[in-house]
Amino acid sequence: MNVRTLLLSVLLLVPVAAHAQRMTGTVDSRRSTLAYAAHHPTHDWRATSRSVTGTVAFDPATPSGASVTMRVPVESFDSGNDSRDDHMIDAVKGDDFPTIVFTSSRVVPTAWTRSADGWSGVWQVTGGMQFAGRTVEMTLPVRVAVRGTSFSATSQFPISITAFGIRPPSLLGLAMRDNVEITATLAATLR
Amino acid sequence: MRRLLLLAVTLAATTGAIAAPDTTLVVPSSPAFAVEPSVLDSAEVGFRQMTEAPDVLALPDPSALGRMGDAVTLPSLADTDLPGASDVRPVVFEPATQVDADGELAPADSLVLPARMPFYTRMFWGRHGLIRTLGLAPSSRRGELELRRSMLTWHQRMGLVTWAAFTGQFVMGEIMAADPQKRADLGELHGATGYTTFALYMGTASLSLGAPPGRRYSTRFSSTKLHKYLAVIHFTGMAATPFLGAWVAEGSGNYDTRLNTHQWVTRVTYAAYSAALATMYLLR
Fold it and tell me: How far is A75 from chain B (nearest CA, A)?
């Protein structure tokens, strides 16, 4: 192999090596949750789904190119009260639109640092949230950490259910509050 | 395996049924087959490639599908000359719907009805429940869930109206018990409003007891469970109250004993009813 061939091979391999930095992972449902905290004039409650699925793809060196998708079956939320969970499925039109889907369209890292442990920081993730037959664009603050091949992300944000065309369900004549606090925890193993 | 998945989707489509993931298939126009949502999900991509498959398969006669809950064996790809067909094993589907004697469709309980239904729900809405036997059930499980929501909403509204009527009746009874003169003046009115309260109560109770089954029933304790346990107490008391009222007015023996019995049964009933109402408002 002469010097020219060697150089050519190296040049050809550079983009391949750069591309290889992009890591992908599938959301680990056993370690991921999506929870909502809702408020009624007489009591509050919280329901959690442990059936979160989705994908993550990004390059730690340039996280602005990251993409995240998340899918959660509406019927998987458990508040500890079957009757209430049933009512919520009806209220959010779960028979017609059985899955909540979030698909990112833009990621802006507001803090992103590398340490001996790996990468960590905060991203502003913009994307479309499909819920109850409507897609609403929202920007979510997401705390992200990457340790080796382990990816974890947490986010807490409010949503207005009326923005998704959902009429707040009522109990004994009193409707629940429009704003619902969402807490998402995603975990994935990257490759 | 892939061909098996494609067959599942194609059969679902040819029988008129295709559903979004995570939903149960229920078809309004013809008998259908329930396919695991994960199967549909996985086979989505290959669906269009298999549109010719029905031409080479002899689907069973819909009228021969039998009773609700019966398993149906579908023709196998192994019986066709499609490439790779010999690798495919026969597959058995359970029907998601049944055709009753009038040609109406009803859900097949073995697939879509939840486990651990209360006995009264099973009595009306179980596989051989009264509502199904009489052919009064909605034609789909979805229709049942809509009916359930409507009945439970009215149960809530009527529960409040009944509580107001019961409160008036209870207060009137306590006043009458404390004052013999009032007892004479209000006796007739108390009897009439008592029957009205009883009728309202039974109407409210029937909206809950007769509602179609929900999506799931767990064994965990919850505010709804407590609501039901309290309902056992107030239902028993309310069922006895008209007889106790008549016994007080017309019975023989010691009057004070009869009055005390009626009064305390009503107190316990009213307390249990109020607590049942409060659990829905105040507990998580």
Answer: 9
